[in-house]
Amino acid sequence: MPRSRRPGLTRETIVAAALELAAQNREPTLGAVSRKLGVHITSLYNHVEDRQDLINAVRAAISAEHAGRVLPEGWEAVLRLLAAGMRDMFARYPGVIVPFATTPVGGSPVAPLYERLTEALVRDGIPRPGAEHAIHALNALVIGVALDSLDPDTDPVASRSALELGVEGLILRLRAMAGSRSG
């Protein structure tokens, strides 16, 4: 016998509630979303499979905000754009910092962008393991800066500068990796 569905409760309303929570610096857990919507947590399972599915749906919604953005030429510009975009996203939705940091990206709408960046790095002579490590390093850097920025005493200018310094350091290291392979 199929479970009854609450009228008005859809995957879209669940994701919208999760985004509202994240914008208020509250982690969008299944429990928090169900409380926000005034439904029993089991009602959510008619629309989302589990925590991973909810987080991927939130990633997809945030990614859709940037749909159609043309990526610049060259991996360095893409790396800078990705870092700035992630920084801005975490500033807008601070409640997703921890779940995004602890939930695998594979299968999410962000995975193809990461793969394109990895392929661009490999084409420029960076060994695949180094390219994949660079993506992990970028994520760690941005998440670290995002977590630091949650502290009300953190200077936003210093935080932005720290991220830019880290990204430029990563770019320099990747250039060296590419140069050592071609020479």
UniProtKB/TrEMBL annotation:
The keyword Secreted does not apply. GO terms for molecular function: DNA binding. InterPro entries: Homeodomain-like_sf, HTH_TetR, Tet_transcr_reg_TetR-rel_C_sf. Keywords: DNA-binding. Residues 29-48 bind DNA. Residues 8-66 form the HTH tetR-type domain. Transmembrane segments: none annotated. Coiled coil: none annotated. This is HTH tetR-type domain-containing protein.
